[in-house]
Amino acid sequence: MNKFFRKYNKWLLAVFGSGLMVIFLMPEIPSLVSNMGLNRSIVATVDGRSISRQEWSQYQSEAQVIDRLQLTLPFVGTIDSWEQWYLLVREAGEAGMIGGLATSPITDDQAIQISRSLGVSPTTVLQTYTNYIGIVNYLSHLSGSAPLSDRRLRLNGRKLFDTISAQVVSIKADTPDGGQEPDDAQLKAHLELYGDIEPGTGDHGFGYRLPDRLAFEWLVIPDSAIRQSLESSEAMNDIELLKYWRRNEGDKGIPEVKAGAEVPEAVHARLLDELTDDRRTEISRKAGDELRSPRRGFKESGGYIVLPEDWDTQRLSLEDLRQWLQAEQGLELPTVERTEGLLPLDELRSIEGIGLATTDKYGQRPINLPALAAEAKEFEGNGLYPIQEGVAGPVLKDRQNNLYVFRVIETDAARAPADVEEIREELGTDLQRLAHYRQLVLDIDDVRTRARSEGLESLADTNKTSVLGASFQQYDPRFAQFFLQNQGSMPRASQIVPGLGEDTEVVTTVLERASSIDQDGSLVDLSPDERIDVIASEDNLALVVVQLNSRTPITLDEFTVMTEAGLLANLIMQDELVNTGSVADAFTLEALMERHNFVPSGNSEQDEQATVDAVGEEDAEASGS
């Protein structure tokens, strides 16, 4: 028999090895077959050509890179969906504007750095930038097909790039004369108009849609408590300290061992640091295990756990976890904390300690509490981070190495206010501001006359405000070269009115009126009628009194560089077409879909979700978690 095995050992190894491989892969076969079928499924057709789910996945990844990097396109602006991105890439490619990866404006090292921060492959990053540059070139080619005259370039160039130095007085609407408060009927009517509009986006900036909000509880495991428990433990006794000293003598900061010498403080501190790091990792793991234990075997759907109706009685409370950690690890822990009611996600960072804590459980890029909460199931998250009401999240750690165990206990997804009572004070304040603003607009001529005759200081004192310095411009020419080199679109300069906030309309009006003055440099010798004006700010409900002081034009070198590179012509057309939308409208998703005969597959998303749910349930059952 031994002779037989020695003679045919290679054949036997091949046969039995293949059999073992088949047995090993059997649990994965349903998932592999499912994924193969998923990749072959059709999500849409374009001009009769089918788009597979595998191809869809690539373009979706690229669209996500564009969104995460906040890249915008001339005329188009931001990309709304993968379909729009796909059709733009297709159209630019058909025009011969997209080259190979070698035409990408970023290096391989830059792609690697970006990929690490976004969690995608470097190849995807390179391909995204290659496609992006191709689309920018394509749109620039279209916009430059109608050359502009030198006179038009000069006049519009000054309007876009000249810098205006001024002084402003912002008279904000507050309470109308008489101070009569709006009644319930007015409040209700106002709420019906703007209740489901995002704040700051409606007429006059009105909008009362409530954001995603949540309440949660958390337990702090201070790093100091872990260190204190170790300092008095057997792991730090004299024998262990001496052993550690001998093992590490000669290391940087660790002196040589001398007979009879006391253990140096450097040895004590280094051993305590190492033990604390190990114990912190152990506590984080054990706390997570204890919290997950009651839900082992539960099914998952869409990346979230399917909880039973009596989950509140089954789950481990954070107070029980606290007591267990104190007994098991010898820790002195503070009591469990809770938020005071529901908090918007953008306020979570302001919570002391846990607000800035992060986890690296989901990749190399640390994820903070607001980012985790935004993916909660109740907020229609995509399952990227498994956060949901009633289930403890991953253990977080701050920069001081304190640990945080948290659980969402209540959620309220974004919605319009249920009734007037929910935001009565805010509604009443805004209606009074609107009434006062209308009074201010009626008096705008009187305000202008007073400003020109008495000066800005007197007007500011009367309205209990102050005179502030300001600098206005549409685009900053200092950034032109950078965006030319990177083939990007030029961002607008800050459109801020001091004392008031962002107001593009007011800034544009100031620049247009300044462009009508045929004078550079100081403007102080002009008459008050030419220098001082009053502009109504509808977005911020205020009157803005502006006094022009000086005008700084772009230099000849800056003008030449931007003109020869075509940037100035592109900006002029983009600025002029922002309202008409003749170019922008041609590249909306609807226009692109019609032009390319793009037809989405009716059941693709349902099929995909069903497949994902099924795979998720199989994985959950297999892992028993």
Explain what you see.
The protein folds into three domains: about 10-145 and about 585-625, no CATH class; about 150-180 and about 425-555, no CATH class; about 215-410, no CATH class. It has 25 helices and 19 strands. About 50% of the residues lie in helices and about 15% in strands. The two termini are about 45 Å apart. Strands 3, 13, 16, 17 and 18 form a five-stranded antiparallel beta sheet that branches. Strands 4, 7, 8, 11 and 12 form a five-stranded antiparallel beta sheet that branches. Strands 2-1-19 form a three-stranded antiparallel beta sheet.
Spans of at least 5 consecutive residues with low confidence? 28-38, 603-625
Total beta strand runs: 19
Mean pLDDT value: 83
- Beta percentage is 5-15%
Helix content: 40-55%
Q: What's the number of structural domains?
A: 3
**Helix/strand class:** alpha+beta
Shape: globular
Short description:
The protein is globular.
Explain the layout of strands and helices.
Layout lengths: L1 H6 L1 H17 L3 H12 L1 E5 L2 E4 H17 L12 H13 L13 H11 L3 H22 L6 H12 L1 E10 L11 H11 L18 E9 L1 H9 L6 H11 L16 H28 L7 E2 L2 E2 L5 H4 L3 H12 L7 E2 L4 E2 L13 E2 L7 E2 H6 L21 E2 L5 E10 L11 H19 L1 H11 L1 H7 L5 E5 L7 H6 L10 E2 L3 E2 L1 H12 L5 E2 L5 H4 E6 L4 E11 L3 H9 L2 H14 L8 H7 L2 E3 L3 H20 L2
Antiparallel strand pairs: 1-2, 1-19, 3-13, 3-18, 4-7, 4-8, 4-12, 5-6, 9-10, 11-12, 14-15, 16-18, 17-18
Helix pairs in contact: 4-5, 4-7, 5-7, 6-7, 8-20, 8-23, 9-16, 10-12, 17-18
